[in-house]
Amino acid sequence: MFTIGLYTGLREADICLLKWNEVNLAERLITRTTRKTQKEVMIPIMQPLATFLQEQASKDKSEYVLPEHAEMYEKNVSGISHRVKKFLEGISITTSKIPKGRTRAVSVKDVHSLRHSFCYYAGMHNVPLAVVQAVVGHMSPEMTKHYSMHANQQDIKNAFKDMNVDFCNTQTEENKLLQEKRAQLKQIIDKLPLEKIEEIIKKFKDN
User: Fold this and answer.
1) Chain-centre distance of CA 204, in angstroms?
2) Which of 140, 187, 201, 202 gives 20 to 30 Å between its CA and that of 45?
3) How many CA atoms lie within 13 A of 6 on its CB side?
4) Alpha-carbon gap, residue 154 to 191, rounded angstroms
5) Strand partners for 40
């Protein structure tokens, strides 16, 4: 569920009730009429999501991509959200807070947060706003229709082609520093004469 949410920006209902006839692995595209707005959206299937979907497709067939979630959602709409929040709290992520001046807590982390993350990463990878709006249908029905007119299937696929990142494996500061140091070292090595490189290799082999 987290994988589909992060890589599609779909709402909870559309994640749980996504069907295989809406998934085209050959064309790397999901086409679905969203449950909330009844608007058709086209979502490119990035590589991490493609890998997950291929694994799912190899299991026992069902009309739903996530059959257990679909069954659970149909029986108890709030059950999915409750389980997701319980999982997040289990890994020390606060899922609700009481705003200043109010007495009731409000949700700050839930399934919908995956949709926010999708939009955030799309922005970080310079996906045009019009394309993001066409994919997630964030605007009013009138505005969604306006933006969708300018974002056809190929536009959407092209815009997301460089966004095949693994959202679940964000780099730590230590890893970033390590990569920077390796890049610096490579620049130095590229300028060294052959005999000096051979001398360094021999020294490290001996050690």
Assistant:
1) 42
2) 140
3) 17
4) 43
5) 33
* Residue 187: half-sphere exposure toward Cβ, Cα within 13 Å: 6
Tokens of 148: 């969708």
Architecture of domain 2-160 in this structure: Orthogonal Bundle (1.10)
Q: Which residues of 44-82 are buried (b: 16+ CB within 10 A; e: fewer)?
A: bbbebbbebbeebeeeeeeebbbeebbeebeeeeeebbe
Instruction: Parse the chain into domains and list their residue ranges.
Output: 2-160, 173-206
List the single range of 73-87, 107-121, 165-179 with lowest mean pLDDT: 165-179
Asked whether the beta carbons of 139 and 133 are under 8 A apart, the reply is: yes
| Dihedral, 3, 9, 14, 20 alpha carbons, nearest 10 | -60
Question: Is pTM, for the whole model, over 0.70?
Answer: no
The two three-digit tokens of residue 40, written as one number: 């058709």
Paired tokens of 82 = 């409750």
Residues 120-172 have pLDDT tens digits of 888 777 788 778 888 887 655 555 445 445 556 666 677 677 666 665 555 55
DSSP state of 101: T
